[in-house]
Amino acid sequence: MRLLFIGPPGAGKGTQADLVAERLGIPHISTGEMFRDNVARGTELGRQVEAIMAAGEYVPDEITCAMLGERVREGDASEGFVLDGFPRTIAQVAALDELLGDEGLDTVVVFEVDEEELIERMLARGRADDTEDTIRNRFAVYREQTQPLLDVFDERGITVPVDGTGEIEEITDRVVSALGAS
Ligand code: ADP
């Protein structure tokens, strides 16, 4: 099972990716978490990306794709994975296609949540990149750079929409049944 969870900032992809990956016994791979971990540990990579993340911009594709490529080649990802937050640009889709070869993604779960609710959730979450200005910028970047990916995956016939509002468990059930039906 090679899954991608996609949706606007704050849509709960990370929470759901964690829960669904555990149910399926496959790793949850989050580029955002990998970057945050590097920032926290003060690595060279962390120093490169810290200011970019704080501004709500995307880390350059070259850096992101190299990091992701290494992670996906690890042994625990051979039976599948839940990708969360990658790919986010058209160039990243091309890189992922190349990495996965003929057996591409099986299903792309698209989280749908109203933008007003998202802003409220993110302000409540209080992460370093969750200030109001940064949030606004992340939405703009998402619309411009990531939303077009939905058409690409729609054309491949692998997207399933999931309503991302409600209780966490309820949403997990929706995702799992959407996966069963896809
Ligand atoms: P959210 O989905 O809530 O916006 P993430 O944890 O997925 O948060 O990502 C946090 C930040 O990490 C992004 O705003 C961006 O700066 C960086 N990032 C994560 N994944 C990518 C990616 N695939 N390409 C570029 N930047 C990324």
Descriptive account of the structure:
Strands 2-3-1-4-5 form a five-stranded parallel beta sheet, with helices on both faces. The chain has eight helices and five strands. The longest helix has 24 residues, at 132-155. The N and C termini lie close together (12 Å). With 182 residues, the protein is of the alpha/beta class. It is globular and about 40 Å long. Adenosine-5'-diphosphate is lined by residues 9-10, 13, 31-32, 35, 52-53, 56-59, 64, 85-86, 88, 92, 129, 138.
Give the structure's gist in a few sentences:
Helix content is 58%, strand content 13%. The protein is built from 8 helices and 5 strands. The model has no long low-confidence stretch (mean pLDDT 95).
Strand content: 5-15%
Sketch the major β-sheet.
5 strands, parallel
Coarse shape = globular
Helix content: 55-70%
Number of H/I helices: 8
Distance between the termini: 12 Å
Query: For the CA atoms, what is the radius of gyration?
Result: 16 Å
Provide mean pLDDT, rounded: 95
| Sheet with most strands: strand arrangement | 2-3-1-4-5
Order of helices and strands: EHEHHHEHEHHEH
Using DSSP, what is the number of strands?
Answer: 5
- Low-pLDDT segments: none
The hetero molecules present are: adenosine-5'-diphosphate
Category by helix and strand content: alpha/beta
